[in-house]
Write the structure tokens for this entry.
Amino acid sequence: MMLNPILEKDLKTKMRGWRTPVLLSIYLLFLGGVLFLFFLANNQLLNYYNYNSSAFNPRIAVNAYNVIAIFQFVLLMLIVPAITATAISGERERQTLDLMLCSDISTWSIIIGKLIVSIAHIMLLVVASLPIMGTVFLFGGITFGEVMLMFLFYVITALMVASLGIFLSTLFRKNVTAIIATYICLGILALGPVIAFFIWGVFIERNYNIEITYSIITAFLFPSPGFGFASFFAGTQSSIFGSIFYEIQNLAEKETSFLRYLKPWMINGLFNIVFSGILISLSAWKLKPVKKIKRRKR
Amino acid sequence: MLKITNLVKKYGKFTAVDNLCMEISEGQIFGFVGANGAGKTTTMKIVAGLLQPTSGEVLVDGIDISVKPRAVKRKIGYMPDFFGVYDDLKVDEYMDFYAGIYGIPYRERKAITDELLELVDLSHKRDFYVDSLSRGMKQRLCLARSLIHNPSLLILDEPASGLDPRARIEMKCILKELRNMKKTILISSHILSELSEMCTSIGIINQGKMVACGTVEEIIDKLSHTSRIKIKVRDRMEEAIRLLQEQPSIGRIDINGSAIEASFKGDELVLSEILKRLVMQGIPVVSFTDTGEGLESVFMHLTEGSEEYDA
């Protein structure tokens, strides 16, 4: 069996270069630093070493886990576009794209190869950060299943962002344009539905006295990665973020349609998978230099 | 092997390739000559499956590129005029990557790479990073890459451009080797003399149109016996042009202010005959001169302007 040649080459060159280890180190140092500062800010470390506190509050560990998870999510949203939006435009800038396109490799294989390399890169970051995430296991309050579920959601979201980056990199000729366009589109995707929902809330819901239901919220917010991600914090009432989603969870329980069985992360995850499929297909089509035509028989 | 019929490529209102027709049979080395921007690269990119033609037909071994692009690409090895390399790959990794792109099994790759690096004289550089190679070496490596899947048709877009004289000679030697291997080659250059040594046929392209096409001997014969004449007339210029167009020895005609410039093929007797006819028709000829320009300048005239050369 042959590996996708683009995947093989990119993995080889990316992993042996200096950029990946440096990125990985900075990423882990940042996450570790955030965790350390969180404990420090909560006075737990000092209390622990001075034996002033007789009991460790597991709630702090859960909060620490949440903070790390949010930081990691934001970091991924920032890193993935930078990695993926140069996938095709980078080849074009380097003048190597034509050499690939004049071969008989399908544009599907090129796109899939580039996508898997990007996902592998992201997975490396996420997997490498698992020990940091796992620190909270020392204190309890978080199950292994919850961490794995979060991991799955990261991968699905990264797939969507990577597909978006690759699609825009087939559209734009320059790396910088493709990266900026990806950040803008991602911003629209993340914040657009939320803004639309609030506008709807102010103008429609108040004037016509329509009761907000889970299906209405879902209809507005399903594309936003933040909506799916925040559902992991529905139980964290201590933050505004958590309390909003606590309310959403309550509305979900009152929902009578099939939607009540679908949590926000499932709905958003499903959207991400379908949207990725569409973007990948469009990228492969756009990359084809010669579109097949059917000639009439003479 | 390659048949192009009525090929047209337009970018908005600009026509890069205009109704181009040509045919290359198996084992032929076809030199594609033309000034920069004449349409050589566009034509080659269309044949290589990198550009969609506006209209027309390109057949490689009888297969239409617009209908079965991937099947055609398997038969073609393409070397662009400008290309990039992966700086972070070694020479043998570079070849291995493209072997993978063409679906060559792992077990066969080493032997093919060895053979091709031997052909382009880069065997001793196989463990070097591509980035460290000189321009000439990179050109040779790109040529080896284009041969990795053993294509029957090679498209080489200005393979010797930007090379020093030594590297040019090395490239010529490799091309001669490929000719011995019975490869069909379409090679472009803007220097006529560069191609005349190694090609079996030559096509001259200007403003997207094929202005002259034939064997090297035919083209050289056309050009070497062609000179430019300059005729100044006081008036009745249109009548003079019409009369000149009727003469079989007159080729392309250009108007330069009050003077008519025309490519001419023939001896002094024919020349005096043309002058006699002009005078007998009552055209007020002020001067009639053979400019005595050489082969290269005739070629320059041939690839200037927009009128078709019909010698």
Notes: Chain B has eleven helices and 14 strands. Chain B touches chain A through 38 residues (CB under 8 Å). The first helix of chain B runs from residue 40 to 47. The mean pLDDT of chain B is 83.
